[in-house]
Amino acid sequence: MKRNSYYGIVGNGETAALIDADLNMDWLCVPRFDGFPFFARALDPQKGGRLSLEIKGLSAKSQQYVGRTNVLRVELAGEGTQATVTDFMPWGKPVFIREILIENVSDAARTVPVTFTVTGTETAVHPIRVEKSDKYACLSDENGALWIEWCSRDGWEIPAHSSVTHRLVLGYGKTIEESQQAVNLHRNENLLDTLDFWEKWIASAKTPSVKDELYKEAYYRSLLTIKLVCYEKTGAMLAAPTASFPAVPGGGDNWDYRYCWLRDGYYTAWTLDQAGLHEESRRFYVFAFSLQEEDGSWRQPLYTIEGGNPIEFIVPDMTGPNGEKPIRFGNLAAEQLQLDNAGNIVHGFWMHYQYSGDKSVLERYYPQVIKAAEWVKQHWREKENGIWEIRERKDHWVHGKVMCYACIHTASLIAKELGDQEAAGNLQSEADRIKQDILENGWNPRREAYLQSYSEDAPVDISVLALEFYGLLDAADERMRKTVELIEQPLVRPRLESGEYTTASPYSGMDLGGLNMNGGIARYDYAHVPFYLPTIWLARHYLNAGNLKRVRQLVDVCIECSTDLLLMAEHFDVPTKVQWGNFPQAFSHEELARLILDLPEQL
Question: Start and end of every Trehalase-like N-terminal domain (predicted)?
Fold first, then answer.
């Protein structure tokens, strides 16, 4: 029985496909991650397109990855017949291949019908043209095209105790000609080559110390997953490969994550560096520094995977699986002020040096590090939209201030490492001023905790753990202990007269409890469902505090609520184990992988 079936993912460093255990491809964007989704049934069951395969008389037994690779395999069985369907995308090549093996295990010849079906995403704003025959399908719009070839038959005649094999080959490009050429060039790609690529890549990763085999598999699957959101052409790292998957049931938090957030990319690069996979991290920082403005800032918190601005638009005739609206493509958060940008890049760059030992890269970008620190010195006192990108308000976010501290403190360390003692001293003096401001103004005496912002009625927010993670407070500090005690309280939302729960924020002084939702941890105290990232962050706090029992409880919640392929979205629901939000989410996986690397052997 499936524990928690959802979707598997395959990809090639340019785009990625979501495929379910019933052999349906329900998400694919071309000609790259941030193109319009030609298949989008995972988002909109009515208008979203789909590529499907049915082998009559056979039903799927399981969907799994082939070892520690990103090759998906589904096994099917029926009376006298069995089949294996293997899906893969060769790295760096514009093609998806479905390899089908059907075996007749009976004593008589059998006819086995196989049906392929293709439908394109249908919207008035962005229609997909579909042309089909009995051997191919062509889907196209003004920005891209798919060419799919298969062998369509009423039935495959299979002698007793023998088998047949067939391939469905999907090529893509900017034009129909390019997509057809991709099929012609790559239809014979060897599955073994793709398996070898992934096996060699993951073999170079550091081995975790934990004894728990499920933890180890979650670690390796997380690394393999975040590799799939690395855009090979530029080094950009996506937050997730999907757009507008509803973050909450029936709500309007439907965002496009197919872009490179400096924050999410930094988290991912840090994990890859700690795992010994430095090439991807180095390329991310080269990409990030190429985006820095002349004044030392990063004008946007997120960029397209080629460094542009992701313009947001709404598709009015699409909805989420439960009717969620609006469905957004592009992301308006690119226009926000988020003060953690520079801290993410400068601190992450320092961690890259710490793990890789590549001093030449440190020297190369040192002038840009200093420019980033100087910009932060001028702007750290401003209000911002914050880590959760609240569109309705700006405030003095504790997390953002901490990352300003991290930027200048880390720039001081880099200056000292490179022998610039005068700059190191000046920078550290400014970092100390920021630290004092945060520790004094971030503390809420009424609730005896650090809250989301300096505001008197600020919500409880998991992001204040940055105080500990970046060295402003120790895990054993009384102020941090009281903050975590508040976080651990059950999340309580007051009901309105209508009977619905309010989602207003802030709450004008009402004490509403903490962030614990059935064992999962929410990001703030007006959330609807828990969030993988806060759950793992809280586990890291307990690791620092030496409470391994609580660490295991929190890690186990995440693994138990992940899918049967150990994949995680952004949010999750503990009782139902349903995934919410874009999928799979890079920061869920990177944070789990890095935590597991830090766990002691006895776990």
Answer: 9-111
Query: What would the 3-class secondary structure string for 254-274 be?
Result: CCECCCEEHHHHHHHHHHHHH
CA atoms of 320 and 245, how far apart (whole Å): 7
| Residue-number span of the structural domain to which 560 is assigned | 207-291+302-329+528-603
- Which of 201, 217, 235 is the last residue in one of the domains? 201
Are 591 and 533 contacting, i.e. CB atoms less than 8 angstroms apart? yes
Dist. CA 181–CA 170, nearest whole Å: 11
24 and 170 within one domain: yes
One-character DSSP codes across 153-206: EEEEEE-TTEEEEEEEEEEEESSHHHHHHHHHHHTT--HHHHHHHHHHHHHTSP
**One domain, residues 70 and 85:** yes
Chain centre to alpha carbon of residue 257: 8
CA nearest 305: which of 258, 262, 244? 258
pLDDT given at position 268:
98
Instruction: Give Cβ neighbours of residue 387 (< 8 Å, ≥ 6 apart).
Output: 263, 338, 340, 397, 399, 400, 463
Kindly state the greatest CA–CA separation across the chain. Answer: 85
Domain-ending residue, one of 171, 201, 231: 201
Together in a domain, 170 and 67 = yes
Give a yes or no: residue 390 inside a domain.
Answer: no
Q: What is the DSSP letter of 464?
A: G
pTM for this prediction = 0.96
The residues near 357 (Cβ < 8 Å, ≥ 6 apart) are none
List residues bridging with 580 in a β-sheet.
571
Is the CB of residue 559 less than 8 Å from the CB of residue 588? no
Give Cα 188 distance to the centre of its chain: 31
241, 129: one domain: no
272 shares its domain with 170: no
Angle between the N-to-C axes of helices 191-203 and 213-227, in degrees from 0 to 180, rounded to the nearest 10: 110
Identify the burial level of 585 via C-beta atoms within 10 angstroms of its C-beta, where 0-12 means exposed, 13-18 middle and 19 or more buried. buried
* Burial group, residue 242, by CB count within 10 angstroms (0-12, 13-18, 19+): buried
Claim to verify: residue 32 and residue 164 sit in the same structural domain: yes
Q: Is the model's pLDDT at 576 over the cut of 50?
A: yes
| Closest by Cα among 261, 238, 30 to 145 | 30
Radius of gyration of the chain (CA): 25
Q: Which residues contact 277 (CB under 8 A, 6 or more apart)?
A: 201, 204, 205, 223
Q: Which of 180, 172, 175 is nearest to 136 (CA)?
A: 180
Total structural domains in the chain? 2
Q: How many CA atoms lie within 13 A of 226 on its CB side?
A: 35
State how far the alpha carbon of 50 is from the alpha carbons of 46, 474, 495, in Å. Answer: 10, 51, 40
In angstroms, the CA 87 to CA 83 distance is: 13
Q: Is residue 322 part of a domain?
A: yes
* 392, part of any domain: no
Convert the pLDDT of each residue in 465-514 to its tens digit. 999 999 999 999 999 999 999 999 999 865 444 444 444 444 444 556 89
Question: 112, 102 in Cβ contact below 8 A?
Answer: yes
Q: Which amino acid is at 326?
A: P
3-state DSSP call for residue 121? coil
> Does 424 fall in a domain?
no
Strand partners, 81: 78, 104
pLDDT digits (tens, 9 = 90+) for 98-131: 999 999 999 999 999 899 999 999 999 888 999 9
